[in-house]
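REQUEST ID: PR-0412
SUBMITTED BY: lab tech R.K.
PRIORITY: routine
TASK: structure prediction, single protein chain
INPUT:
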Amino acid sequence: MSTFGSPGALPTTKPTPPQRGSFPLDHDGECKHVMTTYLACIKRVKGVNEDECRSLAKAYLACRMERNLMAKDDFKNLGFKENEPSSTPKPAAEAEKGVKGELRW
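STATUS: complete
OUTPUT:
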């Protein structure tokens, strides 16, 4: 009997994961303490992008990179500046300078 339109046996292919956005889960809880502190911070500030929470997010990503739970990458590629923002405001003229082609929010 036929299989009604089935092309037959298809060759098996190995799926390739995406370069970003997919990484091993932390099954052993190696970075759980940093993650729970970060989530508590986000809850406390009601989702606002606070410097304190950004430093915790950076610490969480660093923990994952140190334990090979994600690929090592520069923090500037992950949305962090070289030196995290300080509490001293920049003069208005200096704050307006940018790099050609730079996206600003």
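NOTES: Residues 29-70 form one domain.
REVIEWED BY: pending
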